[in-house]
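Page 42, continued from yesterday. The earlier attempt failed because a stray header line got pasted into the input along with the sequence. Redoing it now with the clean sequence only.
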Amino acid sequence: MPRSKTRNRQLKTVPRPARPATPQPVPMPHQPAPIFAAQAKFHHGPLPPADELANYDRTLSGAADRIIRMAEQQAQHRQHIERDSLAGDQIARQEQLAIERGRIVGTIWSERIGQLFGFAIAAGCLGGAFWGMTHDRGVATIGLFLGIPILSVVKAFLSRPQAGGAEEKKSAQRSERRP
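This time it went through. Structure tokens are written below.
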């Protein structure tokens, strides 16, 4: 019989060190701990505080004057940029208002021209009906000339949006769905 390749291995047990039953207190020194004090200074602005400015001037003669001049130039530059930005905003608003005025005037003129052409067509049709009556052209011709203005007026009244119409109901339904 062939020999088995498995070998018996013995596990070695390592003894564990014994633990104390209760934790031992850490000895505390009887001297009070030192107390530290800290001070922090914060500054925000274009110029450092006066004492630091004086230190800069003591380190380099004229440094305080240069720092103040730099802060003044920066303030002038920022004010110039803000002024240009406001002027640009005003120009853009004026252009937008001019465009909107043009749209409104165009809409008004379009409606006026439509009304004038509608009046001209209605007057022509009424004139045609009157001509048909005076020259015995028949009921069909007179009815045709009278029917065109009457039907256009009826269509104008039916297609005009009414208060509480379908469009307002749809917009009210959409606004109710929104949280």
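Notes: The radius of gyration is 48 Å.
Reminder to self: strip header lines before submitting.
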